[in-house]
Structures are given as C-alpha cells and as structure tokens.
C-alpha cells in the first residue's frame, strides 16, 4: 500500500514493512529513500535523526538548537518535493543539518565544519541539493525569486521554496525580496520558520507581530475553496482576494502584512507536527502564485537541555549528550578571558563613568558579550535584530545627539553595512565606535564568516580610524580613547581568540592616534605586525634570535592612520620588511606599508604575510593560519628564508 497515494500515484514501493528494531537512519541515503517510508516510519526516522544530530554535535560542535527545531520541516520538504529538481533555499543556513543528512551526507556528517569536511551551511559546491549558498541571513527570498523566474524563463516546471527563519526576517533584504516577489506574481512558496528566536531572543515590532498574528480556521477553509474554484478566472480571483482582506480586517479585526504584499498567507501551523506539515505542503503545491506558510517551531525541539536554554544551545560547543553538561578544554578561572569578554566588561566600566555611552548590536548580544551591559544598563543597550545596516545608521543618528555609540558587529557582518559606514558615519564625521568582533580567521564557520576583509575595505574610506589591539590591555585603552569623542568613525578590530593575560583589568590610559610601538630593535629584518598576530611574531622573533637572526618588531596598532615615524625608521634602516596581519593581503596593512615606502623613495623589499587572494574554507583557526602561512611556523620560515638569501 502507499501511505500518501495522492502524493506519489503509481509508486508501488511507497511503503516499507515496519520493524521496530530497524535502524531507519542508516537506510535513508537520499530523499528518494525517504519517500518510501510510512507515516509511522517517518516519525521514527525523525527520532533517530534527532538522536544522531545530538550525538554528533556533542563531539563535533555545531549549530544544534536551530537544526533540531527545523528537523520536521527538513523531513517534510524532502518527502513532498522532488529535489534536487525542485529547489529549496535555507535561510539562515544553520537550520539545515537535517536537510544535509537526508541528502546523502550522513556518513560525512562527522566532518561537519572540519578542515576538508562538509560545510556547516548549504553550499552549491558541496551538493546538487544545496540550491544556493547561505551563510549570512535574510537572502533566501531574493535568491529563490531569482531561481523561480530563471526556471520560468527556461520553461522548467519545478517548484521553488524559500525557508526563512531563526530571526532572518528581521533583515531588510527579506522585505525587498517579498515586495518584488509579490509584484512578479511568481509561483514561489516562502516558509516562515517562526521559532521566536534568532540566537538570542528576537526583538522588534516584527517579532511582536508574528507572535500575535492568528487566523480563522473557517475563514481559511472558505478562502482556500474559493481560491481553487476560481483558478481559471484570475481577475475574479483577485477581486475575491481584495474582498477577503477587507473581510478579515473589518470583521475579524486582523490585518496581514504578507497578503498586503500579494502573498497568500497560510498559518500559523505547528511546524513540529510532521504528519500535518506534510499534508499542508502537499495542499500548497496545487496553489499558484506567491504563497507564505507560517509555521511555529521550537528551537531545540526534542532535546530538553536545548529547550531550557535556547541561547546557550544555539551552538553549545562540546557537551555530554546524556546530561547536557558542557565539556570545555579551557578552565575559565585559569585561562585568560576571550577578547569579547574583555569588551563586555570594559564597556560597562566606561559607561559607568560616561553617561553618553550606549551599546548596539545586530542580534548578537551574547556572542559579543554586550549582554553584560544589557543586564546592568538595559536602557542603554540596543539589540536591533539581524539588521547590520540599520545598526550603523541608528548609531549615526544617536551620534548626532551627542551620544557615543559602541556598535559591535562581527567583522564579516559589517560587510553588509559598508554603504552605511561611508555615507552615514564617515562622510558626516560622526563619532561612532565600531567594535569588530571575530576579525580575522574565525575557523569552523568557514568562508562566509571569515572576518578578513575589513582592513582592506575600510582603508579606502576617508576620515576613518582603523585600530587593532595586540592584547587585552590595548583593547581596553583603545575603547577608552575612542569614547572621548572627536575622532569620527573609529574601528577597533579584534579576533575570535583568548587574550594574553589573566590579570587584564588594567588602569585606562589614552593612546595617541596613529602611533605604534617599537617592541624590539634589531639589525637584520624588520617585522611589522597588526593586532593579535603580534603575539605570534614575538614568539618567532625570540626563536630567530636563538639562531643568530636579529629581528626588529613594530606593533603598528593602527592600520589608518599609519605611524609614519616608525615607517621612516623601518624604511631607512632595513632592506627587508615583513608585514603580518590577520586579514587579506590585497589592500591590507602590507599594501599600506608598501604604498608608504614607495611614496617616500625607500627601496626596502616588503614581504607580506596574511590571507591570500582566495576564500578560506572551514577548519580550526590554527589549521587555517598554518595554511595561510602566518602562524609561528610560517613567520619563522619567512624570516629564515630572507636571512639565508641575503646573508
């Protein structure tokens, strides 16, 4: 028999004999295998899949809560739709673990986010089932619309689905896509996976709107029947649609943002009810035009620890799957703090003495440690949702009123607000402090998240200061200096790493803008570093000294403006200069040094170490530093190579 004969007519192999001892997880190697399961087997497969994800992520950390919440959706979509012909775009991509496992990557899932393994996000280069690469949020509707119109132009009858959730609907690009899709009247299904969370709790009017929005069952049933019966009469159908909106607003006292954008709205429905979700998706396949299905899911569904603390279990690191207890390789009482923690405590110290300071973040208060200030000063901290451009321009508006905003955005996310930084902050010379967390190589999140471009793209902007601390004391002092105001756009970039010293609460002191430090003099080679990489360089220079190579070390501290006095010193004394930076070489600090030396007539040869001209994949930070050639081994090898060639 076939459990869903109307879904798959003529399929003689639609059912598999139920066997309670059968390991369904290892029998499903593709969506085609999934379609052979009975309803009971589908639910059992879901339980096994959930256990598998929890077990795997307990040893190999990744995004747990979101993928558990979207697990039933991942199963239902692959069961109903004919992928990879039908296209599914996941947004944000960390919801897609079930999708990856169902589509043939179960046996490679242990390599998730590891060097040479599968990506933690959908990747077109990885699988034909990943119809669009999604690392940053709010892109799915625009991409899916492009795919749908492309298929229409190619006379391709396949379906297109955009899954948007985990806070991604707070991004402005999502509304641009919705607006365009409604006008185009394309056969597109948008699934809003509403878990009332992103990483931290969702914020803003959209969150309140989604929480309060309900629909009448009788009204929807009536509308669906009318809609189907009038499918051959589009003009009459549009009239009924307008009448329906008036009816719902006037009689039911409801308005619907999505239907005002020409989307047929369905929901909200229980997105963790697998059987009902399959039925709804099947029904929606026969309805043409732009449609939005609003599903309610629970982040961390099925795993009690993740349900109790969704923020922690978004990406919890290693843990005991039986108890939910975290397993850390660090002893936080014995190890130095993370740079983000130094930021979080320091901004509170500064704000206690300067009432003009406020903190802003686009949906990452816990990740960047602004939650420390949020707890103590809730009226002076603002989580604006996944809206980086808005975060920057909102900060600019605050600055016009004499407020000093510390706008904390991950380096790879500030890319999305580049125009706002130029036009709304730098051009108007407004005092906004940009704290760029996760600058440089970030590791397992891969190419979409490596924060390696900020030095290069910010260097092109006039009237901007770009700084990077070598340790936690410098981070504190740069923040202290920036909050004094009068500098305009002030960038402080720091890595995803632990600081250097356990005793990091040092007294504040102002730092002169554009001045670096000569940490050590030398006679053979000059090494110029920026930021945390200077600590690698210091270790290497000690090793080089033991081999008889004298290396001078300059901590530039500022990428813009440069310390011209120190650069004149290096250019006049050394014929070979090495630059080390945790960012792209093209347009980075090495390029800046080379431009200065050339412009001032120095003949020094500059050897630039940093990120090469390619996208860097996922892996451990130490592995990626090694591949890029600016870990301690890479720097030492470069010093030896130069010395041997020129002694």
Could you describe the 3D structure shown?
The protein is an alpha/beta fold and 647 residues long. Helix content is 40%, strand content 14%. The protein is built from 25 helices and 17 strands. Helix 7 links the parallel strand 2 and strand 3. Helix 4 packs across helix 12, helix 14 (339-353) packs parallel to helix 20 (472-482) and helix 21 (533-546) crosses helix 25. Mean pLDDT is 87; it is low at 1-21, 198-204, 206-219 and 245-253.
Structural key phrases:
647 residues, alpha/beta, seven-stranded mixed beta sheet, five-stranded parallel beta sheet, disordered N terminus
Briefly, what is this?
The chain is an alpha/beta fold. The protein is built from 25 helices and 17 strands.
Topology, please?
Layout: H1 31-34, H2 39-59, H3 65-69, H4 71-80, E1 87-91, H5 97-105, H6 140-153, E2 160-165, H7 172-184, E3 189-194, H8 205-212, H9 217-229, H10 234-250, H11 257-260, E4 264-270, H12 274-285, E5 291-296, H13 304-308, H14 339-353, E6 357-361, H15 371-376, E7 381-383, H16 388-399, E8 404-410, H17 411-414, H18 418-426, E9 432-437, H19 454-459, E10 464-467, H20 472-482, E11 489-493, E12 517-520, E13 525-529, H21 533-546, E14 551-555, E15 558-560, H22 564-573, E16 576-584, H23 589-599, E17 605-611, H24 621-628, H25 632-646
Parallel strand pairs: 1-2, 2-3, 3-5, 4-5, 6-7, 6-8, 8-9, 9-11, 10-11, 13-14, 13-16, 16-17
Antiparallel strand pairs: 10-15, 12-14
Helix pairs in contact: 4-5, 4-12, 6-7, 9-10, 14-20, 16-18, 21-25
